From TrEMBL:
It comes from Streptomyces parvus. It holds the Pfam family Sigma70_r2. This is RNA polymerase sigma factor. One of its GO terms (biological process) is response to stress. Belongs to the sigma-70 factor family. ECF subfamily. InterPro entries: RNA_pol_sigma-70-like, RNA_pol_sigma-70_dom, RNA_pol_sigma70_ECF_CS, RNA_pol_sigma70_r2, RNA_pol_sigma70_r4_t2, RNA_pol_sigma_r2, RNA_pol_sigma_r3/r4-like, WH-like_DNA-bd_sf.
Length: 193
């Protein structure tokens, strides 16, 4: 694990002579790329530091920072200045992206532990080795799915539950379970291919 670049969060107050929040907010809402670049310069280090502290990995923190600002750009129409400051909105997006990364990391670790445990009991002939590789590939692909799709498909594959049983167990409407199953299978197919 690498050491943090900064031990103290960066100062996010505007430098003298830079546009204020109102100008940046309006630029964001108007789709002004120059204003968005200023937003990145102003809050990028804060987002990166948050991600690094939560994940402990510089590369993952860089990925999260990129996801936060791509998400902010794409979701700019949903930003409401009357509900909170621009910085708070970006921090909220960062927290969600960090939580998603931690959930995915936990899922991958859990799935690798299951695969390793299952593989430990096999005598490793060619057919068994191929089965282990297939299982690891499927588990890895499954871990890349959104949480709800992952949950539904895991219940189907590993617990043998029907969609109706999953609906009862999770409290999701049956139509939602079916949608998660269909979308999850499509994504799983594309990831495996």
């Amino acid at each position: 694990m690498s050491t943090p670049i900064r031990s103290v969060p960066p100062d996010v107050s505007p430098a003298p002579g830079t546009p204020g929040d109102d100008h940046l907010v309006q630029g964001l809402l108007d789709g002004d790329e120059v204003a968005f670049a200023a937003i990145y310069r102003r809050w990028g280090a804060l987002v990166h530091t948050m991600a690094w502290r939560a994940l402990g990995d510089t590369h993952e923190a860089e990925d999260i920072t990129q996801l936060v600002f791509v998400g902010a750009w794409r979701g700019r129409a949903g930003y409401r200045p009357d509900r909170g400051s621009l910085g708070a909105w970006l921090v909220g997006i960062a927290r969600r992206k960090i939580a998603d990364a931690l959930t995915a990391r936990t899922s991958r670790t859990r799935l690798m532990e299951i695969a390793a445990r299952d593989a430990g009991g096999l005598r490793h002939g060619p057919a068994e080795a191929e089965a282990i590789v297939d299982r690891v590939l499927v588990l890895d692909a499954l871990s890349r799915l959104p949480v709800h799709q992952q949950t539904v498909l895991s219940m189907i594959f590993y617990e043998g539950l029907t969609q109706a049983e999953i609906s009862v167990r999770t409290g999701m409407p049956l139509g939602t379970v079916k949608s998660h199953c269909r979308r999850g299978m499509n994504r799983l197919r594309s990831v495996i291919e």
